[in-house]
Amino acid sequence: MVRSQSPTDEPAIVATTAQPLRPALRRVRLRLPGQTGNVAWNLLGLFGSAVTQWGIIALLARFGSPTMVGQYALGLAATAPVILLASLGLRVVLVTDTSGRFAFREYLRLRTAAMVVAVTAVGVIAATRGSGDGTVIMLIGIAKAIDGVGDIYCGRFQQLLRMRLIATSMIMNNVATLLLMAVLLSLTQDIAWTATGSVAGSTLGSLLYCRWAARRLEPGGPSRTPRPAPPGGIRRAGTLVRIALPVGLASGLNSFSGNVPRYLLEHRSGTGALGIFAVVAYATVVTNILFAGIAQTALPKMSELYSRGALRALSTLTSRLVLGSLALGAGAVVGALLGGDTALRLVYGNTYAQQGHLLAILATSVGFSGALFFLNSAISATRKFGRQLAASLTMLVVNVVVSLTLISAHGLTGAAWALVVALGCEAVLKVVMFRHALATPADPSTTARHRA
Fold first, then answer.
1. What is the mean pLDDT of residues 70-75?
2. pLDDT tens digits for 227-281?
3. Could you tell me which of 21, 124, 26, 53 has the C-alpha nearest to residue 278?
4. How many CB atoms lie within 10 A of CB 401?
């Protein structure tokens, strides 16, 4: 087992005021930010998560029906923007809070309260869909709200570079969810009952385990302890909301915008068509989970590079991650063109065997998605959160226009192209934003607090 090292064990790879940038750049070339063990644990957790989440889709496709897959996909698409908006991007704010302005308990209390509000909002959405789809939406919303509470614990683990704890939480959550959903599907053949497995898995992996692991970080535990929350709780919570709100709005808008093709496809062609789209698209979503893991691992180091003024090192690191994702995306397109139909038949059955052309189109999105994960992390490291909100509003308009045009004319194929075109436009926009952020110096007061 890889030893979980403390932050003080981490080799310094950033430039200080007394160091030239060239040594920092040399170290960036040699290794990924963070420790090798932490990167390995993070990738292990995300790989396990990707496999099990893909397993859920494969399970519903093989032993259910396209309609059942569509109901599950609709539940994910309907609840994700609400949960992300309520999450307020607090994990990003926590991880990039290098000066320790707020105590962890302040983040936790705010996130918990926000998840209660999110579940209430999901209940309103579920009520508009009737007892069938509505029940599934409600259950998935509850599961994702529980995950939202666990996510802020994982933010603390990430801040302390305890990626093993995050990996364990993710694996427990997703393995339990997959097993319980498989049992419930075989017993009931009902998607609503099957979705309760997601609630149970989230409770075990995201809530119970994370609370237990966090207690081990208290005095006498294996790592340093967050400072007690200072007085003035409500006023400070309001300040934290104002800081985090642009991130939350951007995340919610990004999720809603990214799901616009699914909303319009379901409205135009029904849950069966959405189910087919979700099954094929999930082959590419798995790579997004791996990209997310690398981006999460890189974020603390990106934040430190920016706060130290090592802008060239930050730019070099980000560029190489983006180019790597684009190369992987090109490989995914080649693979889909050569064996898409065969792979879909073997994995999902004959119902999906003729959708290889759809898989090839969606594979084009892999490189853009990876680039966006790394660019978003780099922009977050600069703490220019308000600019992300402006970008999200812009991309919402682009997504709606492109999706309405292409889906109305081409159905399933149009939905796939709409996703690709929107991601490509967003990647270009984020490159411009990142370059502009690098042209703006870091806040001197933040840099001074960090060095102190």
1. 90
2. 554 555 678 888 888 888 877 787 788 788 888 888 888 888 888 888 888 888 8
3. 53
4. 13
* Per-residue H/E/C for the chain: CCCCCCHHHCCCCCCCCCCCHHHHHHHHHHCCCCCHHHHHHHHHHHHHHHHHHHHHHHHHHHHCCHHHHHHHHHHHHHHHHHHHHHHCCHHHHHHCCCCCCCCHHHHHHHHHHHHHHHHHHHHHHHHCCHHHHHHHHHHHHHHHHHHHHHHHHHHHHHHCCCHHHHHHHHHHHHHHHHHHHHHHHHHHCCHHHHHHHHHHHHHHHHHHHHHHHHHCCCCCCCCCCCCCCCCCHHHHHHHHHHHHHHHHHHHHHHHHHHHHHHHHHHHHHCHHHHHHHHHHHHHHHHHHHHHHHHHHHHHHHHHHHHHHCCHHHHHHHHHHHHHHHHHHHHHHHHHHHHHHHHHHHHHHCHHHCCCHHHHHHHHCHHHHHHHHHHHHHHHHHCCCHHHHHHHHHHHHHHHHHHHHHHHHHHHHHHHHHHHHHHHHHHHHHHHHHHHHHHCCCCCHHHHHHHHC
Nearest of 44, 41, 247 to residue 160 by alpha carbon? 41
Q: Which pLDDT tens digit goes with each residue over 355-405?
A: 788 888 888 888 898 899 899 888 888 876 656 677 778 888 888 999 999
Q: Please give the residue that has the higher pLDDT: either 60 or 96.
A: 60
> CB of 138 within 8 A of CB of 73?
no
Q: Give me the amino acid identity at 229.
A: A
Cα 193 from Cα 181, distance rounded (Å): 8
Q: Which of 66, 292, 275 is nearest to 166 (CA)?
A: 292
**126-129 LR contacts (CB < 8 Å, sep 24+):** 129/78
φ, ψ for residue 20 (rounded to 5)? -70, 160
Distance CA 407, CA 261 (A): 8
* Tokens describing residue 152: 């802020």
Token pair 């139909």 in the structure block, residue: 341
Overall residue count recorded for the chain in this entry: 452
Output the CA angle 68-73-75, nearest 5 degrees.
Answer: 100
**Residue labelled with tokens 């090592």:** 310
Contact 144, 136 (CB under 8 A): no
